[in-house]
Design brief:
By secondary structure, this protein is α+β, with helices and mostly antiparallel strands. Helix content is about 25%, strand content about 20%. β5 and β6 form a beta hairpin. α3 packs across α4 and α5 packs across α7.
Length: about 400
């Protein structure tokens, strides 16, 4: 009996010893590939990141960290392996390094280059010191995929049990607001409701970061100009969900207003950027970029938007808060609910309720009732004010959180 027990203990010990080896072989491996020669001051050089032993993933995000006092990242691009992704965001100038975020509706399989970077040396480089930080790799169901960074300790590898689900999976949702003139032509969108956390369209006074769920995964800084901004977490979340993009310099411009063309374009991208073969009657969109013109045509011929007249769309016009809620309400199905019971209460609660256009009041109160907006103060909804990119980021994150439950 003792001999039998001893044999089993030996077997168990062997299995235990072998387990780490098996687990390591199952992990995807990140490799940072650097030039064979160290660059001199003023020289440019390329860095690539490659992935091997890939089990298949649908979302990936990572930051290439480096010493920005001795080198500058001029460009960050996704590699050929990720060319078919549905969503990609790169920011070469984030505070934490050069960020790459990619999500796909289909599993990305195989091995190869996932990112490339161009740097310029500010001084002679004596050694390469690149690292991958804030790595997130997940499958179609949001489950984390184990990985290992070549050259790093096993502590820097991640197993599915330790990593939180990625937030990179594309979430179609609207973006900006339409002006009050669009009351009759609102912008309903084919249902794809994904919600947001409660209280978007509010102002800084009422939109504090404390509103955000503290249990949310740590956000990665995607833009260079939102650190410390009241909507920082909302902006990062909205960008990771593919709702917003920054400019070529990695800025988000959170306090900039939104135009009508930008809003329709977000809806169009959200619906898969469908091709449109018909021309609109609008004479004031000829100088817009092709993406804007396609989006406006798509929105018009699907009945989502109207112009300010039969021949004018006013693509550069700014969008009001009440028009934004009207559009979002249409997008959600334009159905009324419990907010109707509170109309009289809301009329008395908000000092500027009389300023809300009649066509927009049901939608504004729908937003209040569903905690999508919180107002610019406890007693002001500011329906005629134009919305900023930061405010809309919060509204849309709230909308996704509400309607995806």
């Amino acid at each position: 009996m003792k001999k039998c027990l001893t044999i089993w203990l030996l077997v168990l010990s062997m299995i235990t010893i072998m387990l780490p080896v098996v687990a390591a072989s199952d992990k995807a491996v990140f490799d940072i590939c650097v030039p064979s020669e160290l660059p001199k001051a003023g020289e440019t050089f390329e860095i690539t990141v490659e992935l091997s032993n890939n089990p298949g993933f649908c979302a990936i995000q990572f930051t290439l960290s480096y010493d920005n006092t001795i080198m500058e990242c001029k460009r960050a691009e996704i590699g050929e392996m990720l060319d078919g992704a549905s969503l990609s965001v790169t920011n070469p100038k984030a505070d934490t390094g050069a960020i790459v975020s990619v999500a796909s509706l289909d599993a990305i399989e195989g091995d190869g280059e996932i990112a490339s970077y161009r740097f310029v040396a500010k001084e002679d480089i004596t050694e390469f010191d690149f690292n991958l930080k804030n790595v997130s790799l997940s499958d179609f169901d949001g489950n984390a995929v184990s990985y290992h960074i070549s050259g790093a300790s096993e502590d820097e590898s991640v197993s599915p049990e330790k990593e939180t689900p990625s937030e990179l999976t594309p979430q179609p949702v609207p973006d900006e607001e339409l002006t009050e003139e669009d009351s009759q032509g609102g912008v309903p969108v084919e249902p794809n409701p994904e919600a947001e956390q409660k209280e978007p369209i509010s102002d800084e006074k009422n939109d504090e970061p404390e509103d955000i769920d503290k249990d949310q995964p740590v956000q990665i800084q995607l833009f260079s100009d939102i650190s410390g901004h009241w909507a920082e977490t909302y902006v990062n979340t909205a960008a990771q969900k593919g709702l917003f993009k920054g400019d070529d310099e990695g800025r988000f411009s959170p306090d900039d207003n939104i135009t009508r063309a930008q809003f329709v374009t977000v809806l169009w991208r959200m619906s898969g950027s469908p091709s449109v073969n018909e021309e609109t009657p609008f004479e004031d969109i000829d100088d817009q970029i092709d993406e804007f013109k396609s989006a406006i045509a798509w929105g018009y011929f699907n009945g989502y938007i109207n112009g300010l007249s039969e021949t004018a769309f006013d693509p550069d016009g700014l969008l009001t808060r009440e028009a934004g809620m009207k559009i979002l309400h249409c997008y959600s199905g334009d159905k009324s609910g419990g907010e109707l019971l509170f109309t009289a209460i809301y009329d008395g609660a908000f000092e500027d309720s009389k300023l809300i256009s009649e066509w927009a009041k049901p939608s504004m109160y729908w937003g209040v009732y569903n905690e999508l907006i919180s107002g610019t103060s406890e007693t002001m909804l500011s329906p005629k004010d134009t919305a900023t990119r930061a405010q809309l980021a919060k509204i849309l994150v709230n909308y996704i959180d509400t309607y995806s439950k």
